[in-house]
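User: For this week's homework, look closely at the record that follows, marking any run of repeated tokens, and judge whether sequence predicts the tokens.
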Amino acid sequence: MDKSKNLYGHLFALTANVMWGLMSPIGKSALQEFSPISVTTFRMVGAAAAFWILSMFCKQEHVNHQDMLKIFFASLFALVFNQGVFIFGLSMTSPIDASIVTTTLPIVTMVVAAIYLKEPITNKKVLGIFVGAMGALILIMSSQAGSNGNGSLIGDLLCLVAQISFSIYLTVFKGLSQRYSAVTINKWMFIYASMCYIPFSYYDISTIQWTSISTVAILQVLYVVLGGSFLAYLCIMTAQRLLRPTVVSMYNYMQPIVATIAAIAMGIGSFGWEKGIAIALVFLGVYIVTQSKSRADLEKAEKPHFKSSK
């Protein structure tokens, strides 16, 4: 049963990051016709509506007042600070710098999990994160070798703050995913996030000239809302329930792989041996981390075993 749960957890984490990986080129294209704050608000409000509609067909769960407060703070770290700060950081720095900064998520998550959950920092875990990071960096550098920098220290720091914010969510608020379903948590998280964004984005949205917006841009925003937000967060919440925070965060390395494959499929990228090695390193890194021992595993190993006498 545990193996089956682990398999589902890995599939959900993989699916979420594939959707986020596709969102990079799709969302960037949508930003040509919409402002970053508008797209982010569409994500929050649209996903909130989708989760509330879905919740009508699911078993209703009562959330106590104390947990409602925790869900509010979870929405700040998982959505408001993570998504909002990253978008502003991305607008100030180059895509290559932002991509490199996102590879810090598993490292930060490992440290936060060690401090908050007392999860051990094992040799396998460190090795796996290092191998995966090398693969992601090779992939990013080979894909962007011919692009211009246009980086910004402030932009890079904002992207880093976004990664730290999400790692805190994965670790500190893991308990919520054990008590409530992904639908229940998400419907409240996205409502709270919408309340935080609407006051700041009202002017931008009210001044949009909808007659000049292309159908393609609207479809791209729909993907950002339904694919990159609704389905992706549904999957990542489910994975969070089944897997350790560091393992979930390792799948972040899948995003540059998906973006590279999408670029090749669209005819704006090429596949070389460097990309092949990079992808292999990412998968190897994920595998090594999944083989590392958790706190529960170590505690179980330390317990004395007594042989029963006949």
Remarks:
- DSSP finds 14 helices and no strands in the chain.
